[in-house]
Write a structure and sequence with these properties.
Elements lengths: L4 H23 L6 H5 L2 E6 L5 E5 L5 H12 L4 E3 L21 E4 L2 H4 L3 H17 L8 E10 L17 E7 L12 E4 L5 E5 L6 E5 L3 E4 L10 E9 L2 H19 L4 H5 L10 H4 E6 L5 E5 L5 H14 L1 E4 L12 E5 L1 H4 L4 H12 L7 E10 L18 E7 L12 E4 L10 E5 L6 E5 L4 E3 L10 E9 L2 H31 L1 H31 L5 H10 L10 H7 L3 H14 L12 H5 L5 H15 L3 H29 L1
Antiparallel strand pairs: 1-2, 2-9, 3-4, 4-5, 5-11, 6-9, 6-11, 7-8, 7-10, 12-13, 13-20, 14-15, 15-16, 16-22, 17-20, 17-22, 18-19, 18-21
Amino acid sequence: MPGYSTEIMRLILIGTFLLFFGVNLILGGDISSKRSIFDHLTEQYSLKDGRHIFVFDGVIPEEYIMALNIFMSTNDNWRYVLPDIHSGRNATLYDSGNGIPWKSWKDPAVLAKTNVGLQLKNLIQAIDAETHDGRQLSFRMNEIYAGLIRRGDRTKLHQEATAEENSYSIAIYMNVVWRKNAYGELFFYDEDGEIFAPIRHKFGRIVVWDSSITYVFRPPSISQLATQGIIVSTFSADERKNIQKLTYFQKFLTELHNPPYLNNWIGHTSKASSLDFNKHMTLYRENRNGHFVAVFDGLFDESSLSLLRSWVIKYGTYFFDGSIDVDSDNVQWIAGINVDDFVHTQFWPVIKRMSQFVTKNDTDWYPYDVACNLIRTHDHTRFHLDTSHSKEKEMTFLLYLSPNWTAADYGETAFMETNDNAPDNEYVAEVVPMYGRAVIFNGHFPHSARPPSVMHYDARYTFAVKLSYTKLLAVRKTFDEEFKHEGSLVSSFSSIMELTTNPRKIIAQHKIEAVAEHLSSRHLQKILGEQNVEEEKSDDDEMNDRNEIHLGSNEDESEFERMRSSLPSSERKLLQKMEKYHNVASTNKKSGNDPQLEELKPFDEERRKKSWKKWNKISGNAPDKVNDYLELYLKQRTWLKNHIGNKVVAIL
């Protein structure tokens, strides 16, 4: 077992405790005073019938906003909430219907008791008293979620409640850098359908409105690759409605965090031994380097496909990757699935036999990464390899899970001769993602998942299984990936703890890093554009470009260092001026100089290597035994997350 569970627990408990109590002690202020609230009023809009919209800047300190953002985004609650006509899912069961496609809910009963929740309640109470001759209704938070909006999203005009319900809605903007040409406005409409209140995105801005007013969150512009982040909450004085919504969300979150086992859901009885893969194979191609792709139809029956698809849609744990780089596939939403659960389903025996068929009876293939990728119309996926170096021996299996797909819907998986822009580089195959179609290919084969047509409303679901040549190698790769994810969790809670020790410094560093990320993204887009128009590139030129955009990063460097070093000197100087203005030390240094944080930071490379070496020594390099240690590690992490949630409730 890894030796850092106690450190993780202590870090997270300290972080959550300080989030709810410590920040208030340091900041030493609140917004309970009516005067202090309206001192921060930037704009007020009113309809003829007396309903209002209020725009506040700085009404809640930025440190609170940053802590709330970390807390809301560090979870496994992300849901793709748009209706799915093929699964019968009705998004209105747990979504208001405003068209924000990705949402992550928190239990409103818990958040309402935090310092931020109490200050938001004070804000609502003061506004209601101000606009209704001093009346004193008791409002209660009944919903809170983080929402992500990207270019091309089809958000909708919406009303959260009727005028008789005495309900208010709140939107809190989370992007530090947001330019005027990025769009992303919040529009409010009058009785005649005209826009009477246009609100611009600004970090920390809080918009409060009567929930019966029609509004729409406009998506970012097509040129805007960054994701717009918003936290939305509703308060109501209708206790019947409050109880109904609170009860629902508690049930919803409980079910989400306690899904049925995948093998129990879709079954483990397989017909793999009776399959004739020659009869099911509809396409086989190789590129000039001898890397293959094979396509099979009719391997799985309709019932099995439907069960797998419904489990992924209902219980898949999605994570978001909005980064822009050269080597990745740029698939931004991925639902990870436990490998050990998957190998006990009816699908694995078929995939294992398929891998033996295409490799002429190699028998040791084993999955190290199982996931479902979700791609939408305006995503920008890229050609890539599924291997990290030329000596890796890997394959990837794909199973398409979007019913009634036709060639007119696009969304092909494209395969090319090479992963460069050489004049003689050509397409080898374009595979239409027909429902139930299976594809298997060599991991060195350059490929890309294409987004759906603009005429196609639904998402493109692809079930993907990456295979290593031996089980021991597969377990090692799974551990490496899970270790990275755990490091992100610790990093988030480290930020919370640092936020309580020197909030002004940390918020300044957060802004500088956000600017660096914006500049780095813009610079990388420019490089990518230049690469796309080049006619030919030598191996040396390609390596120079890779170094320039810092793909081969040093493990000892922080993410900020990597972004900073990729920028032109003029933009690096801009960051230095910002640091000088805010009177903070260079943020390109690790926080490891702080002994307390260093002690609580168990996810460095050396510890990862030591953990793996220890597992191998104890297990005698036996793949099954090493895999048992991996499963214990993953179960330990699940227990920790659940235990943390219970501790938060107990602390509050």
